[in-house]
Amino acid sequence: MDAKTAQTKPARIKPAKLTRPSKLQLDDLVLANKILFRFNIVDAFGHISVRDERDPKNRYLMSRHIPPGMVAARDIVTFDMNSNPLTHIGMPQMSERFIHGEIYKQRPDVISVVHCHARPLIPFGTAKGARLRPLTHMCGFLGCGVPIYEIREAGGMTDMLVRTAPLGKALAEVLADKSVVLMRGHGATMVGTSIQEAVFRAIFATENATIQMQAHALAIGGKVEFLSDEESAKSSKGRNVPRAWTLWKHQITAGR
Amino acid sequence: MDAKTAQTKPARIKPAKLTRPSKLQLDDLVLANKILFRFNIVDAFGHISVRDERDPKNRYLMSRHIPPGMVAARDIVTFDMNSNPLTHIGMPQMSERFIHGEIYKQRPDVISVVHCHARPLIPFGTAKGARLRPLTHMCGFLGCGVPIYEIREAGGMTDMLVRTAPLGKALAEVLADKSVVLMRGHGATMVGTSIQEAVFRAIFATENATIQMQAHALAIGGKVEFLSDEESAKSSKGRNVPRAWTLWKHQITAGR
Amino acid sequence: MDAKTAQTKPARIKPAKLTRPSKLQLDDLVLANKILFRFNIVDAFGHISVRDERDPKNRYLMSRHIPPGMVAARDIVTFDMNSNPLTHIGMPQMSERFIHGEIYKQRPDVISVVHCHARPLIPFGTAKGARLRPLTHMCGFLGCGVPIYEIREAGGMTDMLVRTAPLGKALAEVLADKSVVLMRGHGATMVGTSIQEAVFRAIFATENATIQMQAHALAIGGKVEFLSDEESAKSSKGRNVPRAWTLWKHQITAGR
Amino acid sequence: MDAKTAQTKPARIKPAKLTRPSKLQLDDLVLANKILFRFNIVDAFGHISVRDERDPKNRYLMSRHIPPGMVAARDIVTFDMNSNPLTHIGMPQMSERFIHGEIYKQRPDVISVVHCHARPLIPFGTAKGARLRPLTHMCGFLGCGVPIYEIREAGGMTDMLVRTAPLGKALAEVLADKSVVLMRGHGATMVGTSIQEAVFRAIFATENATIQMQAHALAIGGKVEFLSDEESAKSSKGRNVPRAWTLWKHQITAGR
What we know:
The structure is a homotetramer.
Chain A: H1 5-8, H2 23-38, E1 47-51, E2 59-63, E3 76-80, H3 98-106, E4 112-116, H4 122-126, E5 148-149, H5 151-155, H6 165-175, E6 180-183, E7 187-192, H7 195-219, H8 229-235, H9 240-253
Parallel strand pairs in A: 5-6
Antiparallel strand pairs in A: 1-2, 1-4, 2-3, 4-7, 6-7
Helix pairs in contact in A: 2-7, 3-6
């Protein structure tokens, strides 16, 4: 994997020639916003992006600066990998869009990125010594490790937001080749090889966090049995993602 | 109880003669799927089956590979006791259908089986030393003991799923004559003498788990008073199951 | 207070002359059932009664054996103080109606009784050493003490249900002059001088339980500051009950 | 900041000349009531006020004595800074309106005040040694400290309510220049430079409390890393409040 390719290649920005993203990709991205809101992964804050299938090495799609639960297709902005908007110019954009651009630069395998403040994940980024680890086969993607991003190391005393490309690059470096990175005093960022997988990981990482807090409390100092590395790796494959997506899409469409 | 009868008798599969299951049994099974989803016992995953009343020794009914909340009567598949589909041939089926077939083989008294990932049950299968025990008279069915299935003992390092008849047989053996078996790093399986009882046990085992975690935390190292064996046995009888079912059916029918 | 008056006077049962309860009292009792269900104080189980305003010393009103959330005015049964039904003869009645009749016999000041299995109250009846105590001014009614009913003392090994007059009488004696009695391995019973007050106490006792568990966990062995006896007594008076009832009635009426 | 100016200047009450508050301010205040109810910050109890933009030094607006979730524009009362109603004379008013008047007198910078019994905040006011501190950048406003009001110090044994101007003045003095004050055995009061900011602080202080309890439990005696003073101060600025308000308004308007 050549993680630096996208980063060193200058973005071929041709705004004048920008066609509209495909309806399918727009629909999936809008639906993903609604699912993340429906399951309390995002509230007024948080965002999900996807590589633009028209030019996946150089562009990504994400909503403009509005709450995820209110996103419609017309709100989807095209960004270059330096997180400059190529459409919706002059409108407010997400301060933390650099999370997305910088991860895409360093991770050619990543197609979609979620950034969120899901409540149950916060304690694992702030309680010293706590480690988010996979408790069930739905969360095998956590088995490769869940690093914690301490923004003080990259930026000193900040307002905690990933407002610049260097802060985003530092986050991507802490994420490295993992699926999820926790952000101390802030939230988490998770990646996937599709919109569906990134959403799945956001929802089930959060589920795992809730259950793991209960398991530790129940064990009171005793041992909790997590998935082994091999179990994690094996259980990460299979039909889980499309099956869950089918239900979530059904729930949003049916207004539930 | 001759637990081996069904297992040794070869299934009399006559697909050509398969009549449709009765509307009553189909309706109950579909309703059970919706109730389990409504009360967060299942999400996109999990399933419930029932012995086919047309040939209860040799066949059972369960939905094809779709989320329980989306199941309709047309999705109900007839399986033989080796978990081969006799209808809906060529469509994707539940990977873990062997849970159901193997339990029916070993437990002639069991009419219905639920497999789920209900969140509050997970800690009891993973926190060393924890035991799920009955805290109220609604959960007397837990009083006979709640074993834990460690799939590593039956299958070594797996993807955690009960994908084969031998893994299902091992699970049925750990369940033995109990009502509920927890599955480490996975979920739980519960059985009943009717669809209604299996659903009741799934919902109230989960309620018990939530309350028991709170009781242990409140006691902080102190004693929690569980139902005695005699109290458990006595409180397992009575009008609880049909009364609860009446409400749940009402709630689903009224769309609440 | 002469708690024995009602008990020793024989019930003047004149079924032939029974007029219908007033619409106002029926409406309040039906509404109370729906409120208790809406706020998860009762599920398929639990019940609320009120002294019959036509003959408050000798009769009370309560629904027949159906889930509280499904109760309508036509389901309200008139009972004598020995908990014999005077209407709806031959229909199934609540097994535990003796809770109500026996409390009315011993507590002339009590107008309404709630029996429930509200989840957060269960740990306080089962964790040894735990005491439910008032944490806020909404729960001053807990300040006089919350006794625990151990049915083993009254009935030995039972199915946990208050199925007889002697078991009900024993419960009323443990309740004594308090507002709430917890029932080990079962639930709780609370009383009030009106339907509104009994419902209020059921809901806020449950709220207090949830908050108190959190307070103890947060204090980790340290002290939690409860209301003093004087604060409890003073905060029990005032406009809280009617104001809360106004909202709850509005929510039920508006279908929320 | 001259906190005493408003307090020493006599209120220029001219009821005869009272025009109606602007529709915009009324709409925002009514919406704030509904948002606080929707997010469980208030139930039947609690209230929010705002300085009257027609005469901000001498008057404030707040609903009459009804549950916040039922408030309409016609229920908004105009009060002077001694918390005397200038409209809706003779109707029942909030017992604790002195919280609002006395804070406005001492804090010229405060435009809006919320008083609530939000459940997760209660443990932090009652568990000895517990301190509510900012865990994420959404709650930087907690970084300046969260004092606890012990009403016994100001009023001895009371019914816990801030029923008088002196009790309100004592609360305002404990609040001092902070954003939130916890009230032992009661609830909390938070202030803001706008209705939107006061609501934001009520909702996110409550979120922080829930997460912080989990973080302490997960750390089991270990350290939890809070925002530093500098991080708190920096993260308190920015676009968070209007963005959250946009979503909340959307949710209320859409009936969700």
